[in-house]
Amino acid sequence: MTETLRPARPSDAPAIARIYVAGWQDAYPGLLPDRLLVGMRRTDGRAERWAGTIRHPARGERIMVAEAGDGTVIGFAGGGPARARGFAYDAEIYTLYVDGDHQEGGVGRRLFSGLALDLARGLGPSLIVWVLAGNPARYFYEALGGRNVGRRAGSLGGAAIEELAFGWPDAAVLAAPHG
Ligand SMILES: CC(C)(COP(=O)(O)OP(=O)(O)OC[C@H]1O[C@@H](n2cnc3c(N)ncnc32)[C@H](O)[C@@H]1OP(=O)(O)O)[C@@H](O)C(=O)NCCC(=O)NCCS
Known about the structure:
This protein has 179 residues and is an alpha+beta fold. The chain has a single domain, classed as Gcn5-related N-acetyltransferase (GNAT) (Aminopeptidase). It has helices at residues 13-27, 34-38, 46-55, 107-123, 137-143; strands at 4-7, 62-67, 73-81, 91-98, 127-132, 147-156, 159-168. The site of coenzyme A has 20 residues, from helix 1, strand 4, helix 4 and helix 5.
């Protein structure tokens, strides 16, 4: 796979919305209420909201896409300043989704690392990410060298959820070639 990483453009918003909804419906059954997942639609204004976020990001926020050789967007990642109180991290990756047909080929690793290094340049070296406790993506973060540094309880769509935090004291380690 020879995808290109680049900053998201507003015209990427429909592809981002599609990958986001498919990612939730694929990854979260059993972790989040079925009615929340079944109720998600690509056409419910989600693409317009993503376009708005891309046009007017919050301070320090960045969204990056992975584009296949034919120009198709096959994954995206977003992040910015770390949001959770009580955790002394500079940057946070808020969202990361790879199209189901393109998973397990290293796209997630390259997107995550590329965005993490980009965020580190603007915000500082340390990085945190939160993941639903039952999401196998936690093993992805462990494979990338993240350490489980916290846990929190919350609610989403009326269901109690538990999230785990993975941290990197210095995102520069993600620049090392893998293999
Ligand atoms: C998590 C996700 C982004 C990973 O992307 P990907 O392109 O499939 O991952 P990569 O191919 O880059 O994998 C990188 C490493 O993580 C490991 N990994 C990835 N997913 C894994 C899983 N579910 N279980 C165990 N290991 C996993 C891979 O084996 C690989 O390890 P290696 O390089 O040492 O061989 C992707 O599976 C996804 O979009 N999932 C659905 C949405 C989601 O859960 N996002 C995270 C929200 S917090």
